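Page 42, continued from yesterday. The earlier attempt failed because a stray header line got pasted into the input along with the sequence. Redoing it now with the clean sequence only.
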Amino acid sequence: MSQKDAAYNSPLNVLTSRMSLLTAKASIIGRFVLDDPHQVTFMSSRKLAAACGTSEGSVVRFSKQLGYPGYAEFQSTLRNSLSQAQTSPGTGENGRKNAPPFLEEQLEEARTSLSELVHFLDMKPFRQLVNLIYQSRKVYVVGQASTYHYAAHMGWEISQIRDRVRFFEVHDPHFQTELAEAPRKAAVIFITDAFCSRTMGHVCRVSTQMDLNVAVIAPHLPCPLAEFTSIILTYGDPGNQQKDASINMGFLISCICRLALSENVVLRTPSFSRSKFAMEDSLDQEDTLNIGMWAAPGSLDPSFAAGTRREWPLVNCIYNGLVKYQEGTWDIVPDLASSWTISKDKKRITFYLLKGVLFHRGYGELTSEDIKYSIERSARGYFRTAMDFLEQVEIIDAHTVSLVLKEPNFHLFRSILPFIPGKIISRAAMEELGPVRFAFNPVGTGPYEFLSHSAADEIRLKRFEGYWGEPARMGSLLFSPLGEDKIKTRLKSGRTDITRLPFANFKFIKDLPNVAYDVNYGLDHWLAGINVTRPPFDDIRVRRAIRHAVDVDAIIRRAFGGVPERSYSPIPKGSVGFWKGAPRHEQNLSLARKLMKDALGNQKINATLLLMPSENDHIAGEILRENLGRIGIHVDFNIQTTDMFNEVARQGNFDLYLTFSSCPIDPAMILNWFRTGEDWNCSHWSNANYDAAIKKAAVTMDTKKREELLIKAQELIDQDCWAVWITNGSSIVLRQRHIDTGKLFPDGSLAPWLIRKK
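This time it went through. Structure tokens are written below.
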């Protein structure tokens, strides 16, 4: 084997390339090995297990996941690889270690798109980032689920150039501890993809507050992290955000590390200044409503507000759409459009706009130009898949605009125009501020205008005095994210006036006797799913046995406090497509055992259950494990963070899973997620008849016929038996007793402009 091949096939290169595929325990061991590989060569499996807080068996399984027969073989290969690297040439004139050959296979793939990378790469932040790596006292490289392997690659490469380099997955508790002790002016480099996690955003803001030098590598703008960093390096095509630019990432990281070998990389790092509009005004506390959010929003740009219902109350305060949901209902009523007409073929909808509607901050009057710009921009944003039916937006005159569709679409008036992607922004403001600053300094026509967004994720709005409609009841709003540790204290102290919580937090109510609450039905779904591509779960008899083995009532009672109702199908009660006649599959262990025996005889099987690290998931998982153990299925847990859960689910390296999804306002849209090849189709299920029914339902405007198609689709899900439906959930609105909630939407979502203090 050549020296080059030996470097390429070294255990460390194998480990970094497979890091995102490892189990949770193996990932801990992997990070320890990458942090100090030389130490590992002298550690027995027992010592390594103790250092990582795992068992010797976990160390052996870790080695096998990398393709080695056991730990001894892995350690021997690692020792030889490090010895070879130390005796090979590769030390620069100044004593720095030259970077080893990067993963050649990835580089070869990346070179095919090198011309695109060079075309879209801004060299100034590129050199600033290299300079940051060179000058900082310590360097942390941080990735999230889908980008951690890039962070590991980059961290390893930089460690060949300089000392004091660490790399982490953002949810790693060791990273939180280490970051708290970071030296002043240390560098933190975040590598994110198009969907930046909330944890990544929080850690980025904390790093900024700690006076650390923060840099971000992202595919394109807008990126929520950009507001809190001095350097943002983008590498994707800003005009085609649907395109996956990650093929360039490996080459980009290699270029950064190669350039860092140069002696002449000195460029002052500029500070990222906030918009002149992000200011702190003194607020009248008596006229301020304090609203708790269960999580911080990622962006206030409607085209990129990926949190959907998390951002919805906030976005609803700042923006209007052509139409809206009538407060207290899901009825569709006019908003910025006074009326509209629909052509006979239902492919052209013409809207007649209100006149005299003003944007915030003096950005002028709303016109058809703003409608066209906003709708077409949303069709290229996070909702692009849901809006692929849009052909174009035509301007008729200054206050008349037509939406031209490729085909009729039922979702347009149910979950597009009245929801986040239908919100209208000021084109002039976007062009002046740019997408990064606009995301944190939004300009709309709503009852409240944006005031400030603090590093602690508190967002302040003030009543828009030039609002065209009925004035908001409170002078200002303060939105604050509440973790579980803050809910009780904030409500008891009166610092939070009102908050909407997932039903899982119902346990807090008993400790808050002086706080009023309302329980509302949910639009979400919890399910226990089965990967139909993995034997023996590809046998429908095994899947039916699982369905009859699970005690769903026990899960609701023990995991969710008995609050939400049980569901028997994906679409919740009261929604279009609700399957009233869905079969009631109850626990029947004798039938389950018979099905297992018919399928496998007396064979016992092992299964991996993929779940997230929440209390609800853990309790539900324990019940599933106990239930399935009674029919001969031994269940092992694979606990992953939310981001990593999604990545592992897409890869399909598991047997069973527990998942929760927050659905759009039109719950029928969730059925799109189960089509062949969809990312959220965790069961990797494929049924051509199902795909056809969903496609037809989307273009069927007759409500009755559409309902029939949606029920047919749910029948096919039930027939192929890849899920055990648990609940559609519920939501709780907690409030101080002096708060008048106005009109809550049916799922408990707030309409803050109607809320007031009594």
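Notes: The two ends are 79 Å apart (CA to CA).
Reminder to self: strip header lines before submitting.
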